[in-house]
Every structure is written in C-alpha cells, then in structure tokens.
Amino acid sequence: MNEQYNEVVEKNGFLTMSDNKNNTDNNNQNNNNDNNDEFIAIPCRTYDISITYDEYYHTPRMWLSGTNEDGKPLNTQQILEDIMSEYQGETVTPEEHPHLGLKQVTIHPCKHSQVLKAFIEKAKENKVNLKPNQCLLIFLKFMSSVMPTIEYDATTDLLFDQI
Fold first, then answer.
1. Where does the UniProt entry say this protein principally localizes (predicted)?
2. Which residue among 22, 48, 75, 148 is buried most deeply as judged by most CB within 10 Å?
3. Among residues 46, 86, 38, 95, which one has the least CA distance to residue 66?
C-alpha cells in the first residue's frame, strides 16, 4: 500500500518529507545531525466518509465527500483523482446519497459481500474470533484498496496473514 501511496504523491507533485541527505550541498554533507529530515507543508484534502447499509446487497456501502486545503468542496472529478484508476467509473461512481439527498461518490457494494465473506472464512480457518468492531475495520481496510491515500485508523493494525 505504501507504494500506491508514493505513486499518488509523486504523480500529484506533493512532498511529505524531504531527506536532506539527498538534497544537500557539499558544505552540509559533513553535518552529523541525526535528524536530517525536513518536513514540508503540503496541500491536503479532507474527506468525510459515511457508511450506510445497502438493503439490496446486504452489505455496508461507503460514501465520500471532501474539501480541499482551503475548505472548498471537492467536485466529483477531484474526488476521483484520489481513487485507484481501475475503479473509476465502474466500482466508484457518483450517486445520490440515500439519506442526505446529495450527489456523492460511492463505492458500489456489489463485491463487498464476497470479499468480507472470504475474510471471515479465513479467520474461522485460523481459529480467529472476530468481534463486530473488527469486521468494520476489515471493511475499512478493504476500502483502502480502492482509495489508498486515505488512512482511517493509524492506531489499529489487522494481521491479515492470521486471518
């Protein structure tokens, strides 16, 4: 996933951190300072994510709306820029949110049940008892394959090799 993130960062020209060891002149190369990383402020998009229950597919469904670094709403095309290209226009499309009545980008739930069922079956094979809150985290991790630049929770790690 880090490779996908780095590709998106490089493609859009954003820098998150610059290593001064690679960007210094000869006068600074002899600096023995252990902390040679320089952090650079970058433009950042913020997303609001809502999850509804899709009654047709009987699975969770994710909806996205976002703002740019100035707090202005992102249009559909701008949101799609943060989506993996193979999902744009097929799995990820703009639709009317069922409760808000607004057009938002959504990740179509047609394959969600198959993927989630595979994770649950793998967990059972490995004698891992999943709690309901862990199922939601699995869903969010699955969604991160569609939108790799979003990190939902940096404090929780799921061990997929055990599931």
1. cytoplasm
2. 148
3. 46
* Half-sphere exposure for 125 (CA within 13 Å, toward CB): 10
Structure tokens at 161: 């090799």
What percentage of the chain carries pLDDT values higher than 90? 23
DSSP string, 66-101: EE-TTSPBPPHHHHHTTS-GGGBTTTEEEEE-TTT-
| Lowest-pLDDT range of 2-6, 23-27, 28-32, 93-97 | 23-27
Region class of 126: left (phi > 0), else alpha (psi between -120 and 50), else beta: alpha
H or E segment to which residue 134 belongs? helix 132-144
**Annotated catalytic residue within 1, 100, 110, 136:** 110
110 classed as catalytic? yes
